[in-house]
Specification:
5-stranded antiparallel sheet, about 120 residues, 3-stranded mixed sheet, alpha+beta
């Protein structure tokens, strides 16, 4: 009887694991005539550089990285006319298990410089 319970438990865990899909996140730069570099969501590095209209590759966050899941701003360095400034979005973006989100940064995205 114990063997049957163990087999059923292992089978159930296998089915649950096979249904799991990691959370994914991407960011798109739709800010006019501005390049953004070192793009991060919280501590998750999303892109080295995004020109206007470009979208980062999907970054997967596995369920064992639960401390990364949650609500975080997007941070980046905005570069235009040979000048750069570090910025963070005022909005924090929520990512839960199994989510697939695309964050679109536009001219209207509210940002702040936390160093000021």
């Amino acid at each position: 009887m114990k063997t049957l319970k163990l087999i059923l438990l292992v089978f159930a865990l296998g089915i649950m694991q096979s249904c799991y899909k990691p959370a994914t996140i991407r960011v798109q730069n739709n800010i006019t005539q501005v390049k953004i570099v070192d793009v991060k969501w919280g501590e998750v590095y999303l892109a080295t550089e995004l020109l206007p209209g470009e979208t980062s590759e999907k970054s997967s966050i596995e369920k064992y990285e639960k401390e990364l899941l949650g609500k975080h701003p997007v941070s980046f360095i905005m570069t235009a006319n040979n000048k750069s400034i570090y910025l963070e979005t005022e909005e924090e973006f929520l990512l839960n298990e199994d989510d697939d989100i695309l964050i679109i940064l536009t001219d209207d995205t509210q940002v702040k410089n936390p160093n000021e």
